[in-house]
Amino acid sequence: MAEAMRKSVAVIIPYYNGARYIERAIRSVLEQTVPADEFLIIDDGSSESEHEALLAVAEPLGVRVLRKENGGQGSARNLGVASTRADYICFLDQDDFFLHHHIALLIEQVRDQDPHFGWAYGDLMEADEDGHVIASSIAARYSAHPKHSIEEMLERDMHILPSASIISRRAFEAVGGFDTQFMGYEDDDLFLRIFREGYTNYFFPEAVTVWCINKNSTSYSIRMSRSRMRYIRKLCKMFSSDPERLSVYMRDLVFPRFMTVFAVEAFKSIYFERSEHERRMATHRDELVAMVDEFTALIQAHTRLRIEDRFKSRLIRALLRPRSRRLLVVPYAAARVLRRMKLGFRRR
């Protein structure tokens, strides 16, 4: 453990109007069994009252705060890295919190003998907004780890969260940090670029962070939908030098993963207005329906879909284009019946 403690670690929290959660996040960092060498909070253009609320918590605890104009979580994290010097970086989102052994477990995963070490990461517990645990494992349940191929990184959500990772400064700076055009999918983009530069990754199946589901976060907003489309456009450019490989990725990985996501978001914006989140998304239904068309056009520009996928995309677009709730009643009811049948077969 003495060897592990000699590795310097900086913890960076990007903050934006998160006064409700920030004390919990801060205390989780300060209560680590192995303390951080540097701890910095970047206020990404919060309102004056939210900034004052942050200072009221951070200053008495001796936590350094920097303030900048709003530019998104990626830009706040980049500033945090540029303002610290530690060799390894741990990020924490304002509404999540570290388990007490977060740094201790992650620093043990750093491979001194690996000159290409990129990052190591653990599992996460899932919790509600108030921090009450719902599940003790997320990453190990839903994805393969560690990542050995581009296919593994594209076929589904990576389930690599910066809040459960320790990242080599060398690797982070080598790829230029987070791409600030994203307000969603910036994590997938970062780890994909680090991987493509030849850096290695290591996973261990123990939770180090509690990931709290907050329906008011960027993950549940139109900004996430727009960022998803930007991410797909970037993937097309990233692999454009190898059209054959790009075609396979688009057909076999990107289309199956994202078509349903775009379609369901557009469907919900037309069909549901029950919760505050659904009502917010309903105001963007025209844009969400247009995204389905744009996504399909983007895919078809780079690959030839299988017959069944072409039929699926045409049917989805035909159902969504009229923006008619009545037209969606039958497919919604059919989908519910099929889901119940599937669950029934699983129980048997």
UniProtKB/TrEMBL annotation:
The residues covered by the Glycosyltransferase 2-like domain are 11-160
Keywords, comma-separated and alphabetical = Transferase
Q: Which domain of life is it from?
A: Bacteria
Q: Which residues form the Galactosyltransferase C-terminal domain?
A: 165-204
Q: Which InterPro entries match?
A: Galactosyl_T_C, Glyco_trans_2-like, Glycosyltransf_2, Nucleotide-diphossugar_trans
Entry-linked Gene3D superfamilies:
Spore Coat Polysaccharide Biosynthesis Protein SpsA, Chain A
State what protein this is by name: Glycosyltransferase
Q: Which organism is it from?
A: Asaia krungthepensis NRIC 0535
- Upper taxonomic lineage: Bacteria, Pseudomonadati, Pseudomonadota, Alphaproteobacteria, Acetobacterales
